Amino acid sequence: MTPSFRLLGTRRFLPLFATQFLGAFNDNLFKQAMVLFATYTIYSDPKKEAAFNAVATGLFILPFFLFSALSGQLADAHDKARIIRIVKLAEIAIMIVGAAGLLTHQVPLMLVAILAMGIHSTFFGPIKYALLPQHLECDEVLGGTGLVEASTYCAILAGTILAGLIDFRATAILVVVIAILGWATARSVPPAPPPGERPVTDFHIIRSSIKLVSGTMHIPRLFLAICAISFFWMIGSILIIQFPPLVKNVFTADKQVASLFLAIFSIGVAIGSVLINRMLDGRVSARFAPASVIAMALFLLLLGFASHHWIPAPVGELYNLKDFVTHPGAPVAIVALLGISVTGGMFVVPLYAFLTTTVEVDHTARTVAANNIVNSGAMVFGAIIAIGFAALGVPVQDALASVSALCLVAAFLAWRLHVACDAHEESCRLD
């Protein structure tokens, strides 16, 4: 068993790991069920489908932009384990609302639940990363970060697959049950009081957000890391929004294939998260990040090629899962999608580990919160780009080519970060 997997046998890591997994599973089970319901039952227009997915994504992201500064301050000023338990208790109420929306087919209730889930994730996000350097040794942080990321995407995998297999009634019951289980595992997370002096909390969300971002982004290495991560999530938001309409309207396949696409994406990121930890041997470094995101751009172009040469189903019909996987063009599409996700995981995991290890422990949550604010702005911009593509009728092949160009910007930022980190390490050795 590798050192990182041994963490799963410790109380300082396992309860957080389980709580994170259950939360991500629940989020994605509900979101995917809602998106599939809207795409395959409510709407029959590609533009409306893409617009709905973009609105749902935007509502989920909005709280990160508004409340990340507050969540980071609270996490650094109070016991993080106690905040986790409060947040997980709130998740039960949120999922009751979401379940009601599914059972009554009320889209507004579903969207309210999506917005509330975004608030839940905003307050949980900084804590899950800030706890790692507080509970783990320095040489365990990258491995722990990789396991958290891998568990997140395995949870996405499980949630997206299940959403395509069970009906809305079963989903409504299950999301509430999983929320209760998440609250139960959260109760076992060890105490994590502030390691330093408690900062004064500024409840003015605009002022505190500006202060937090400006106070973090003036550090060159953090600036480059946050910008690189943000470009990654901008790319990710465009792809996630495009997937259901891409599957239905280009690959002419049913909702089980849409779940398969997201499942492959999740598996790939999980593989990339673990693989990069092995390649770096536990060392936090951006060494492989530029090459990873360039490879991601090439796989995006390959996916565009696969979609351009796809032979669609007969008019009025959709491929089922068996028909899709036996289609002559499926291997290229699956390899491309898996390549995009593996290289994406290899790119982003070391950057998250860098954020949590390059600052003092008592500033970690606020650093992650600043990153979340910038990330959310980038994801909103990505959603706007996706809406623009749909409104202008841009073919998916051209959209994927445009997204691949963004990967080159991320590669440049990652290369700058790697050079800056090497220069910093060299100056520290000389000192």
TrEMBL record:
Which Pfam families does the record associate with it? MFS_1 (PF07690)
Keyword Cytoplasm annotated: no
Q: What SUPFAM superfamilies has UniProt attached to this entry?
A: MFS general substrate transporter
- Membrane-crossing ranges are 50-71, 83-103, 222-244, 256-276, 288-311, 331-355, 376-394, 400-419
Q: Which CDD domains match?
A: MFS_MefA_like
Give membrane topology per the record: Multi-pass membrane protein
Keywords noted in UniProt: Cell membrane, Membrane, Transmembrane, Transmembrane helix, Transport
Chief place where the protein resides: membrane
- The organism sits in which domain of life? Bacteria
- Where does this protein reside within or beyond the cell? Cell membrane
Q: What is this protein called?
A: MFS transporter
Q: What is the lineage of its organism?
A: Bacteria, Pseudomonadati, Pseudomonadota, Alphaproteobacteria, Sphingomonadales
